[in-house]
């Protein structure tokens, strides 16, 4: 894919929506592409995460392991999905395993690259902060809706 295709893809990722093409170009230029074949694991649950991945094309099955050792389907991730966004900011563990359902490609955005974007462009930091807060608030709201089931 061309750099312009990567910029267009990144602009569709909710976390990056509204960023200028110049800023997206810097991110796309510093990121790396990775191809996976059907059945190949992108990352495993519980491993240290140092980057986020944007699915460029293809799809990934997301699963997590329950306490009894069984596996739970967490859904699928297709083109334009950002996986492990918090890993671009701080050290975290992967919360699920991602396996390619078909031949796929991702854009890997490592933590140093993303932190550099935040440091050099304070407006990006403000935007990302607001979007992560919105995502966390939405998750907390969903969790409160489930509280009655666990009381």
List the helices and strands and how they pair.
Blueprint: H1 3-11, H2 21-30, E1 32-36, E2 41-43, E3 48-49, E4 51-57, E5 59-65, E6 71-78, E7 82-83, E8 92-93, E9 97-100, E10 104-110, H3 111-120, H4 122-146
Helix pairs in contact: 1-2, 3-4
Task: Kindly describe this structure.
This protein has 151 residues and is of the alpha+beta class. The chain has a single domain (3-150), classed as Jelly Rolls. The chain contains four helices and ten strands. Strands 1-10-4-7 form a four-stranded antiparallel β-sheet. A four-stranded antiparallel β-sheet has the order 2-9-5-6, with no helix packed on it. It has a two-stranded antiparallel ribbon with strand order 3-8.
Strand order of the largest sheet: 1-10-4-7
Tertiary shape:
globular
What is the C-alpha radius of gyration, as a whole number of Å? Answer: 16 Å
Helix content: 25-40%
Counted beta strands: 10
Helix-strand topology string: HHEEEEEEEEEEHH
> Whole-number average pLDDT?
91
CATH superfamily: Jelly Rolls
Structural class based on helices, strands and sheet pairing: alpha+beta
Query: Which fold does the CATH topology refer to?
Result: Jelly Rolls
Strand content: 25-35%
CATH architecture: Sandwich
Q: Terminal Cα separation, in Å?
A: 50 Å
Which segments are poorly predicted (pLDDT under 50) over 5 or more consecutive residues?
A: none
Number of domains: 1
CATH class designation:
Mainly Beta
- The number of helical segments is 4
Major sheet description = 4 strands, antiparallel
